[in-house]
Amino acid sequence: MARRVAEFGTTIFSDINVLAQRYQAVNLGQGAPDFDGPPEILDAAIKAINSQLNQYAPGLGMQTVREAIASHAQRFYRQKIDSATQVVITSGATEALFAAILALTDPGDEAIVFQPVYDTYVPNLLMAGVTPQYVTLRGDQWSFDPDELAGAFNPRTKLILVNTPHNPTGKVYSVEELAIIARLCQKHDVIAICDEVYEHILYDGVQHTRLATLPGMAERTLTISSLGKTFSVTGWKVGWAIGAESLVNAVNQAHQFITFSVASPLQAAAVTALALPVTFFENLQTVYQAKRDMMLKTLCRAGFKVHPPQGSFFIMADWREVAPAHLQGDVEFAKWLIEAVGVACIPPSFFYRSSEKPLGRYLARFAVCKKDETLAAAAERLSKLANA
């Protein structure tokens, strides 16, 4: 096994899923809905398959899909995108991120990440020979220190990765925070990669702003998103990157030798998805608001101290008041919760660098992207903690 991958091991998501199956736990770990997407999108994929749209798509992506993505950007963000040159379709946001890192950095470069950081970012950077520089989100609002962020920039900094709405915390970066990031990117000539896969999963009237729409950022921001979260089709792995022609061309240089192209019938269905009326997106937020609120009540009643998220699929909760005193950290707690209570969560220490894993020691991440009956089953089991 090559050194570049030897230390990675299996992801915590795989480990938790195996345990959850073994103990028949209600799985609130992985951020994958346990329900299907809208019927019209599924029907569009079936229609495409039955229309013999089953061979390779163009590497950049089908033109109709790129046009739909550009229209979506204009509709929701008033962002003007040239679909012919400023969009590339990838195998989910995951490939878009990896291709972007490979395409826009050289070994020895540095990239800034905010921790807790989604677990694919750092391995992607390390495989590309890039050194991650960590800036920590702290407090109930998961805020960063502007001075700490400024201090992370140096002549070797090539990229900053921004995930908003954020996984695992549910933070939505404010316009003021994005402006700080924008000023530093321009001062140090740094490219921003923005992972916005939860762009339509927002709570309490919070608004999502694209960093690319701030003054001076259009030419130095690569925005990444996907179908999976918004339309409940995570298994399709249809993602995209949009940005300046030079950035997209660079990403495509890597993409063409990773996956080359993305499933044609699923791309065709993406056109239908992205063209759904605004009422779909409004209802999506209403549905998820109810799921989040239901799960917040469940966790509070069980005795957790919760951090209400502004967006995404997830709630972070402090478990110290509900667990046996002998548990030493979030991994032990997650295993105990599966085995003793029958509910699965993700231990967030895996989202911190090794020396700072204690920052996630007393937290647990719960996913709300489940059927109401799944959340109700979890609530019933978690209620035992309140009576313990």
What would you say this structure looks like, in words?
By secondary structure, this protein is an alpha/beta fold. It has helices spanning 3-6, 12-22, 39-50, 63-77, 92-104, 121-127, 146-152, 175-188, 228-231, 245-255, 264-274, 278-302, 330-341, 372-386, and strands at residues 26-27, 87-90, 110-115, 131-136, 157-163, 191-195, 221-226, 239-242, 305-307, 314-318, 343-344, 363-367. The strands form three sheets. Strands 2-8-7-6-5-3-4 form a seven-stranded mixed β-sheet, with helices on both faces. A three-stranded antiparallel β-sheet has the order 9-10-12. A two-stranded parallel sheet has the order 1-11. A hairpin with a 6-residue loop joins strand 9 (305-307) and strand 10. Helix 4 (63-77) packs parallel to helix 11 (264-274). It is globular and about 60 Å long. The mean pLDDT is 97.
Question: What is the global morphology?
Answer: globular
Number of helix segments?
Answer: 14
**Elements, N to C (H/E):** HHEHHEHEHEHEHEEHEHHHEEHEEH
What characterizes the major β-sheet?
A: 7 strands, mixed
Q: From the alpha-carbon coordinates, what is the Rg to the nearest angstrom? A: 21 Å
